[in-house]
Amino acid sequence: MTELLSRIFVKHHRDTANPRVRRAYGTMVSITGMILNLLLFIAKFLVGTLFGSVSITADAINNLSDAGSQIISLISFRISAKPADRKHPFGHARIEYVASMIVSFLVLLIGVELLKESIGKILSPAPPERSWVAAAVLGTSIAVKLWLGVFNKTIGKRIDSAVIRATAADCLSDALSTSAVLISTLILLLFPSLHVNLDAYMGVIVAVLILVAGIKILNEAKNSILGEAPSEEIVKQITEAVQSAPEALGIHDLVVHNYGPGHVIAALHVEVDGKADIFHSHDIVDNIERRLRTEYGIEATIHMDPIVTDDEQVNTLRECVTNAVRETDDRLRIHDFRFVPGTTHSNLIFDIVAPFEITLSDEALRETISEKITRLDPSYFTVITVDRE
Q1: Domain tally, the chain
Q2: Measured distance CA(271)–CA(281) in Å, rounded
Q3: N or C end of the chain, less CB within 10 A?
Q4: Quick one: DSSP state of residue 264?
Q5: Domain end (from 258, 277, 307)
């Protein structure tokens, strides 16, 4: 069904890097979700009102909020497709993260209201009427929500959309919460003599599930807005592009900024032979930048680092320093190594890459490594820069 809808409503549906195709996918998903959620709202609201079920009525209101979330998604896709301008030189794609956060607020609001209403029903019980019609409506709702969840998850992954992935998580949570309501309805139908206020307690369970889903969506949106570490896929693409040039001897200081799907900006250092022709090395760097732009859509700025490759003394010292650094912690790496000899002392200048998981402070790392290197030769003076990753 997903492929069929994609072929019908999305022209050139395989060209997901195209902003127009992404907007068409977003429009298709949003309108599909709006129609189905409005139909579920009408059906469940009527059933919940007729049979006095707080959990079914609350579930109906949740569907109405989902339809509102789809409208927010639709608007966000319209805005995110706008090109860059003077005020927004990196485009508008990050609006999807803002929309995802708004969706999370709506989900949390529904969860809080449902929790309050369910607790009120527990304190002032009024058992609902029992009906197989209600069970049938709930069963249909679960099937629809499961399909919507898979539908949104597939499209969200295909076009790398945070707001659609958030909607998928919300749909699957709704299916789970509606299942809880269905279970309580079936228990009351199968055991007519049971007089436990099961409907209200199931309402509490549904509310908790909705709140958990809202918190997860909010956390993902928050991380995207604050900025996250680059994905393994992006790091792999950049590394492979650099390694494809034999003249590129190393890569470090990689920084990636994600301004939304299809808007990735990277900065990195590439090591080259210091004795090579500078124009040739510059040409190599240009080719790497061009490949990253054309093949992966990554706008990269590369700093060229010349290094000494044929000096035996420098190579020996680099190996000694590398061993000293690894003795401190085998997760540490070095780059930008330089040796500046002098009459009274010699400077060993280099950077170390330290994972955030290493709890030693930057200053403690510098002192520990300097002490190890001084043991090799008291005339060595270290100038160390610590890069965290």
Answers
A1: 3
A2: 10
A3: N
A4: E
A5: 307
Domain that holds residue 300: 232-307
Query: In angstroms, how far is CA 51 from the centroid of its own chain?
Result: 42
Q: Token digits for 355?
A: 């994972």
Token digits of residue 358? 């290493």
Residue (of 170, 46, 59) closest to 118 by Cα position? 59
Residues 119-159 have pLDDT tens digits of 887 887 766 556 788 888 889 999 999 999 999 999 988 88
User: Which stretches in the chain have pLDDT values below 50?
Assistant: none
Exposure string of 234-272, with b = 16+ CB inside 10 Å and e = fewer, is beebbeebbeebebbbebbbbebebbbbbbbebebbbbb
Closest by Cα among 224, 304, 217, 303 to 264: 224
> Are 57 and 172 within one domain?
yes
Same domain, 325 and 293: no
Residue 250 maps to which CATH number? 3.30.70.1350
Q: Are 261 and 373 found together in one domain?
A: no
Q: What is the pLDDT of residue 261?
A: 66
**148 with 97, same domain?**
yes
Structure tokens at 45: 């609201």
pLDDT score of 130: 65
